[in-house]
Design goal:
The chain is about 10% helix and about 30% strand. The protein is mainly beta. The chain has 2 domains: about 100 residues, Trypsin-like serine proteases (Thrombin, subunit H, Beta Barrel); about 110 residues, Trypsin-like serine proteases (Thrombin, subunit H, Beta Barrel), CATH 2.40.10.10. The longest helix is centred in the last third of the chain and has 8 residues. It is globular, with a radius of gyration of 16 Å. Belongs to the peptidase S1 family.
Length: about 280
Amino acid sequence: MANNTPSPNPTLHAVLRPPTSNVPRSTAAGNSDLIKMLHPITLLSALTSTRTTLKPSIVGGTEVSITDYPYQIALLNGGACTCGGSIISPNHIVTAAHCVRSARDPSHISIRAGSSFHNTGGEIVNVSAIAVHPAYSAGMVDNDIAVLTLGQALEFKPGIEPIALPASGSTALAAGEEVVVSGWGTETETGSLSRVLRAVAVAVTTMAECRAAHGEKYITESMFCAGVAGGGKDACYGDSGGPVVGGGVLVGVVSWGKGCARPGYPGVYASAAYLRDFIAAVAGV
């Protein structure tokens, strides 16, 4: 992987479109400021000085059914899908901190579970509490994890089921290990959200490759990278907070990247193993 000079502004993968090419990956729709900065699909306010780009829809993947990804949920802000998330218990969802850090009132946030579509079907459940990792850094997008408590417990059934967390004491993922990322994010850096759930398989890189691509100081122990050498497969705007699964376990959460699916720039994910203690403490799992 080339030793590229990192962009001063990464891209979060929420549904907001950042002013720079490097931002988180979410799709904020209820907050104009957030939508401007997050990976075309992540709501992040006050992110103009950061290096990341929130991410949109899955790039290079295929349409899938919620029955095969029953832990996937759509995170709704004001009724619009801005990020993804994962069911880990009847009452708890794991997502990216940058997807919810600006949500002052949990009542504005809800989830859609049990549907292959982000805007119809399934069940909508309100969020009653939001716990953001105490060491979360918006500037570094470090410890990018949050746990949502639902106002009403989910009833597990086909299409609505939990995903297991890594075992306590789990080590870092092995380079070359295949993981699957899913979400409703955009399929290109300038596209719209996918109506149907999509998934793509990518390979974990070494930390050395990850740091060479994005910059030594920007990749911390709470992160890992995954992608394909020639680009073309990645999470994108709107996928932020969504699941990264390996071996039937939630190994990560979509966080940020430089654009989407660009050669030499693997996606950056929050490590569920590294952040497990926080998740378990909040959710009691």
